[in-house]
Amino acid sequence: MDLTGIGSVATFAKDLADRFFPKKMDEKEKLAAVASMTEAIEERETRVIESKKEVLVAELNQGDKFTKRARPSIVYFGLAVIGLNHVILPWAAWFLVKVFSVNAELPEIELPTEFWYTWGGVCSVWVWGRTKEKTGAKDKIISLITGGK
What we know:
Helix content: over 70%
Strand content: under 5%
Order of helices and strands: HHHHHH
Number of strands: 0
Number of domains: 2
Shape: rod-shaped
Largest sheet: none
């Protein structure tokens, strides 16, 4: 098992050399070309990792706290609306009727179907993506869902 990634880079460079360099090429020239390609690939990989690190650090250091929590905020806002409309207000109405004997026509509070579709879709996709991310799955789609890089 190659934990450093150097072996996989070297194998990749050798595969490229075998595929694209002439078969008649001298073994010494081929080794020199493979070494040169390995160095270039490692340098590229290092730059990619450093760039990702810089982006991550910049995102974590930004002052806008909401951007970091945008997707969870949609979920929490939906939960708050559901709690207000389907728990708190009905309990408050029941309390007014039972305790103060208020005899009033209480409007039925119903969230529109579009709310349920949108909120349910956002929650489903976000929870699925976070679950996949937490289990170590790495995929372009999961990165788009969770905001990972």
